[in-house]
Structure formats: structure tokens, C-alpha cells
Amino acid sequence: MNYARNRFLLKKCFISLIIFLISTNLIIFLSDDAYAANQQAWVKAKAGGFVKDGKPFKFIGASAVYMVFYDDWDLDLEKAIKTAKENNISVLRLYIDLGWGKSEDFDKIFDIASKNGIYIILAFTDCCCSCDFQDLNKYFEVHAPFCNITNTRAKNALKKLIKQIVERRNSINGRQYRQDPTIMAWEIANELEYWRFSKSEVHSWVEEIAGYIKSLDKNHLVTIGLSVNAPVEINDYLSSVFNVKSIDFSSFHLYPQVGLNNLENRELFKESINKISDIAKELSKLGKPVVMEEFGFSSSTDLNWRFKTGKETADFYSQAFKESMDAAFSSGCAGVMFWGWGVSGEKNIPMWWNRESHSIADEKFCDLIKSYR
Description:
Blueprint: H1 2-23, H2 32-37, E1 43-46, E2 49-52, E3 55-57, E4 59-63, H3 70-73, H4 77-86, E5 89-95, H5 103-115, E6 119-123, H6 136-143, H7 152-166, E7 183-190, H8 199-216, E8 221-227, H9 234-242, E9 250-254, H10 266-284, E10 290-295, H11 301-309, H12 311-330, E11 335-339, H13 363-371
Parallel strand pairs: 4-5, 4-11, 5-6, 6-7, 7-8, 8-9, 9-10, 10-11
Antiparallel strand pairs: 1-2, 2-3
């Protein structure tokens, strides 16, 4: 009798413990059916493009790196993501490097994005821009501790960060990051300054880091975002970097060298359009999808501001965006991502990014991307 009673009490205590753990988010159980019902389709890469649900997937996306600061400024994160979806934006891009928000911020973004059918490209570190630092050593030590690719300590530190992020479990929905299809791809780094190293050094580093990511996570795509506004002949570098087995698609960033003083200089802008076409065609030869992962005029905050206040500038701006997207898609790109997307309240933030993001307040711009096919 005592044996049966003890078994009953033990079972009751065990059930109470499980209920406590679930209620405090320390443990979460999901059946296979329940988990499948709450996740998006995985995006996969094939020769020349992406596939989702067995169908070709082409997209307009946007960098949205400042969303991780929204809680600091009482900005509406959910509104930013929902309006992105309403305006034909399918993919958002974030950085998770030191200083780019708290882990809980990313948990929230991924959860909201999943509920709205938005995908995320997540960069592990930001290597841009050494030009902001007078001393190169200070740049590597302070701003870009993971970006000195010939430094063994920096490489091991990056691997440690990658493992921490890939294996993280979302505190809101319980999904481990490496099992969450909301994350379309891991990006090794934003704008590695590859011209500071030899081609063989860059190739070896990318091969090692991409392979390491794949050893932890065989579910997600892997890429690296590289600027083509570079002080070197880029084609050989790009082909060498992206011709790595564990790199699933090529990603390039290009900002037209057009500012307020030469809005009417169509020849100057045409050079940028031709460059988009040339790079997209060259990278397509590798047989992998190509994404123009950053483009726009964020390097000219005055131009961005004038776009919002002057009709002449707005007309040029919208035409420039359309021509850039046309050139990318017609030359083989599977996706384009402009800089950047957010909420209109960002213009009131006393930070460097207060003029960079577009929102539903920019009606002419939204009309363009919402209707673009």
C-alpha cells in the first residue's frame, strides 16, 4: 500500500515539476505536427535561384539592422515588420555582432517575422568600415574584432560566437535557431575588407568559416556580403570567395556614386547600372543564386533627406531604384535588398541612422516596391 502511495506521490511531483518548467520557459515540448504547423517553408538554393515550397522564390528585401535598437527608442517593431510584408518585402537583413542589440531582441524579431511570413538573413559580424578609424589596428581591436582573418585568436573568437548563435534557443517560441526556417541564411560577415588580404587568404578563411557553420547547421544557407565599391579589381576576388562549396549563394553590395551635385548626370549613374549587370552575370557563372544584398543611397544622407522632401529628387530616386532592380533581375539575380526599412519614427532618433530607413511614410517609394514585378 505504501509502495503504491509513494509511486502516486512521485508521479504527482514529477508532473508538477514539468508544468513549472514549461510555465517558466525552461523547457518546451512540441510535437512534430505542432512544430510543423508553426514554421515557414525552408528556402533552398539550386542552380541559378532559390526554391520555396518547390517553387522558384525571387524577392525584394531590405536591410533593417537598426530594428535591434527599437526597444531603446520605443519604436514599433511589429509595425515595421508587418508593413514590410504589406509592401512586397519578403526578406529582412540584420547584424548580430557586438553592439548590435541584445539576444532577446533577435528572439522577438524572429518570432514576429515568422508570424508574418518574413524571412531573415543574419550576419554574424560587421566588418565595415575601417575608413571610420584613423588607425587600422584600432579598427580591428575595437570595431571589427572578428575581421582580421589572418589572426588565429580572431578566427577562434568568431567560431565561438557562431556556435553560440546557431545553437541558441528562442526564449519566446522555443525554437533553436538552427532549426528555425524563418532564418533564410547565415551571413559570415558584412563587408569583409577583402582587399587587405591576398585572394588565397580570403578563400581559405571563407572556406574554413563556412564549413564550420555547416558542421553545426546543415539546414540553413550560408553566404558572405561583399562590397563591390572596392579599391581593387574585384572580379577575381569575388569568384574566388564565392567559389567555395559551403557558400550557397553570392551576395554583393553596390551604392551608385551619385549625389546631390550630379543628380542629372545620367552617364555617371549608367556606370553603376552597367556594373550591377556585369557583376551579376559574372557571379551567375558559378551556378549559384546571386543576390544584390545592399543597394541604395545610404552613403548620401542629404540625398535621402531630399528624397523625402522634394519632388524632383523623389522622381530621380525612385527611377534610380527601379533601374537598379531591373538591371539586377534581368542579369540573373534572384533577389535584391535595399538599404533600409523601418518605421517613420526613426527620423526623430538622434542617431546616425535617423535618415537612412524608408517606411510607409515614403509613399512614392512604397508604391514602387509594392507594385514591382
